[in-house]
Amino acid sequence: MIEQIISIGIASTLLYFAYFYHNAYRREKKLRKILFQKNLINAKEIERVIREKEKQYQDIYDTANSIIIRWSPDFRIHSVNPYAEEFFQMAKDKAEGKDLVLDLFRIPFEKSNEIKSLLWNIFHRPEQNIRQEFDVYVGLDDKRTVTWSNRILKNEFGYPHEVLSIGIDITNRKIAEENLMKSYERILDLYNNAPCGYHSLDKDNILVSINDTELDWLGYSREEIVGNFRINDLLTSSSFEKFQQIIHSFPHETLTGVELEFVRKDKSTFFVSLNSIPTYDKNGNFVISKSTVFDITDRKLAEDKLNDYSQKIQLQNIRLQKAVKAAIKANQSKSVFFSKITHELRTPLHAVIGFSQILEKDPNLPEHLKGYVNSLYENGVHLLGMINDILDLSKIEAGKMTETREKFSLVQLWDTLFSMFSYRFAEKQIHFELLKPETIENRFYEADLQKIRQILVNLLANSLKFTNQGFVNLEIQIKHGLEPNIDLVCFTVKDSGIGIPKDQLHSIFEAFQQTEQGSSYQEGTGLGLSISHQLVDFLGGTIQVDSELNIGSTFVFELPLLRLMEIPNDLIQKSKIGPTNSKEVWHITKVDEKEKEFVQDFLNSEDNQFKHEILQLIKIQNFGQLLQLLGKIPSEAKGKTILLEKVKNKRYKFLIDLVQSSSL
To answer: What does pTM read for this prediction?
Structure first.
C-alpha cells in the first residue's frame, strides 16, 4: 500500500516537472520567436539605412562637380565619377584598371616617375588629408592644372588598400593669377620707372617705400633708406622747417605744390615740388601718407633768370607808368572837356528843338517851310542824342559815375518803357510785347532805376532802329541769388531785325564802333551799346548778345537786385500792370480818334477867342493856365470833360494831334 502511494507520488512529481518544463520551453520558444522577429526588423532597418547612405553617397559621387577617382597603391584605377569621365574624355569602363598617371593623366613617360613619387608620398601620412597640385593633360595637348585632395581608405585589417582623390580644375584661376602678377609687375615697373618720384611716410615720418626714380635722384639704395630715414634726413634745414610748419598747420591734410630742397647722398641739393595724400584705416586713424615728387631744379634756374629779366623790366615799367599817368591825365582832361562842352551844347539845342516843334505845329507855317522845320527838328534830336551819349561816356571814363538807389517795381519799369516806345513801334507796325507779364507782378527792388532804364532804352531803341517788320519782345526772368535777399534779374530783348554778322559781334560793345550794316543802315555814334555794356558792368552784372544775319538779334543782361522786404503802400498802388502789347495801343489810338471828335465839337461850339486861346496854351504847353481857362467856361459838354482829363494826365500825343487838326 505504501509502495503504491510512493509510486503515485513519484509519478505525480514527474508529471508536474514535465508540465513545468514543457510550459517553460513553450514560453522560451515564443520569446525567441519574438526576439528573432525584432532582430529581423532591426536588420531590415539597418539594411535600409545602409542602402540609403549608399544611394546618397552614389548620388554625391555621380553628381559631384569635382573630379573623383579611386585608385590602388599600384596606381590602378578602381573607379571614376561622371565628372571625371567628362573632364578626361574617357569612359568609366575604359578607365578602370588603367594606369592612373600614364593612361588617365597622360603624363609623358619621362615625367611619370616624378608624379608617381609625389603620389606615393601619400602613404607616408595615411591619417591626413593630403593636398597636391600638378598638371594633367586632356586630349592631346590641353594642359590643365588640378589641385587634389587625397585620403587613404583602409580595409578591415587596417591596411591601406585604396586612395580617394578629389580634384578641382584651377587652370582659369592660375591664368588669372599669372595675369594679375603680370599686371602687378607692370604697375611696379611704372612705379619704379615713372618720370617723377614716389615715396610713402608712416605716422613717424619714416620712409616705408620709395621708387627707383627718386632713389636715382638721391643717390641712395633702397636698403639704405627704407625703414631707416625720416623725411628730415633728406631735406635742408630751411626746407625741413618749412615742412614742419605746413604739417603742424595742416596735420594729415592733402598737400599740393609744396616746394622743398632735397639733399643728395653726395650733399648736393636739388629742388622739388611735393604733393602728398594721407590714408586712414576704417576707424579714421592715420596710417600712411603717399607723396609724389617732381624735380623742378630747371624751373628754379629759369625763375632765377626770369628774376633778372624782371628787374630790368621793372625799370622799364617805371618809365611806362609815368607815360601811363600822363596818358590818364590827358584822358581825364579829354573827359572833362567832353563833359563841359556837351553841357554847353545841350542848352542851345533844347531851344532849337523846342522852337522847331512849335513851328512845326503852327498851322500858319507855309507848306514849303514844313520840310525844313521837320529836318531841323529831326537833326536837332539826333545831335542831342549823340551829345547825351558822349556825356555819359565821358562820365564813365572820368570815374564820376555814381549809383543812385531808389525803390521801384518791375511793373513801373515796364510801364515807363511801354509809354516811351509803344507808339513808335505802332507807327512802324512792329509788334512790341512783354512776354510772361505775370513774372514781374509783385516784384519790388531797390537799385539804380535810372541806369537800368537807360540800358533797356538803348537796347529797345537799337531794336526799333534796325527792325522794319516782325516783332520786338522783352522778357524778364527772376532767379534766386547767392544771398537770401538778392535776386538775379535777367532782361532779354529779342527782335526780328537785320541782325549782326558773326565776325562783327566782338566789336559791337566798343565805343564809336558800328557794324558795316549798322553804319550804312542808320546814322549814329556807336555809343549806345558801349554805354549799356559799361553800365551793366558798373551795376555788377553781365551782358551778352546772340545774332544771326537777316534773322534777328537777342541781347541778354543779368543784374543782382536787392529785393524789398517791406513795401510802401504808395509803391503797391503805382504797380498795377497796364498794357503789355502794342496792339492795345492801336486800339487806344482808335478810341482817341472818337474822343478828338467830341473835343473838336466843344471847341467849335465856343467863341473863337476862347478856342484860339485854348489851342495857343496847348502849343506852348502851359497846362496850368489852360486848366484855369477851361474852368471859367460854363459848359457841361463831353468834349470839355475829355479835354480836361487829357490835360491833367498830359496826354501829349492827343493834344499835339488836336492842335494839328485844328485851325487857329
So the answer is: 0.40
